Amino acid sequence: LVVGTLYAVGFEWTPVPGATSYVLELDGEQIPVVGTTASVQLDYGDYRWRVWARDANGAGPASGKFDFTVQSRLLLPGI
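User: That's the sequence. What structure does it adopt?
Assistant: Structure tokens below.
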């Protein structure tokens, strides 16, 4: 049985002084973000993420990289 279900995964980080925007990098894909939270729909699997702070000129530091796994939880009747 294969079920294609996506899960909303929330990301949150501490504001960086001088940052006007952020870029969430998720497995190499860059997602522009306003504010310090983001929610992304993900399937089961292993992921790596980090955040880039951007100032008014588009420059800024990146956080360290963090790994996480989205796991399925199969519930069977009677178990």
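The two ends are 17 Å apart (CA to CA).
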